[in-house]
């Protein structure tokens, strides 16, 4: 009986964690257009706005996908993009 109860509790705990992970993944819609407030800093190296940093943090789970896209890669890997990420406190993705 004790073993069955432990197994049930463990299964429930795993289910809760998986549901939370799924909810987090659903919350992010990968859209490079969301990063449009960051175009100025990416192009010129200027200081990012609060909106830019917020959008960059939201899109963080998507950055590796953008790096894999040849049309978007330079916007994520350029020296100004790295400077922007650092200014916003977003670590450079390790893909």
Automatic annotation (TrEMBL):
GO terms for molecular function: lipid binding. It holds the Pfam family Tryp_alpha_amyl. Residues 30-95 form the Bifunctional inhibitor/plant lipid transfer protein/seed storage helical domain. Keywords: Lipid-binding, Signal, Transport. InterPro entries: Bifun_inhib/LTP/seed_sf, Bifunc_inhib/LTP/seed_store, nsLTP2. Residues 1-27 form the signal peptide. Coiled coil: none annotated. The keyword Signal applies. GO terms for biological process: lipid transport. Plant non-specific lipid-transfer proteins transfer phospholipids as well as galactolipids across membranes. May play a role in wax or cutin deposition in the cell walls of expanding epidermal cells and certain secretory tissues. This is Bifunctional inhibitor/plant lipid transfer protein/seed storage helical domain-containing protein.
């Amino acid at each position: 009986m004790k073993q069955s109860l432990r197994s049930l509790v463990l299964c429930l705990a795993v289910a809760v964690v998986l549901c939370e992970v799924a909810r987090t993944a659903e919350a992010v819609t990968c859209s490079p257009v969301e990063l449009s407030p960051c175009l100025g800093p990416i192009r010129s190296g200027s200081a990012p706005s609060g909106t830019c940093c917020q959008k960059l943090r939201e899109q963080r789970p998507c950055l590796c996908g953008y790096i894999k896209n040849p049309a978007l890669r330079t916007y994520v890997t350029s020296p100004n993009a790295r400077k922007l990420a650092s200014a916003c406190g977003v670590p450079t993705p390790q893909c």
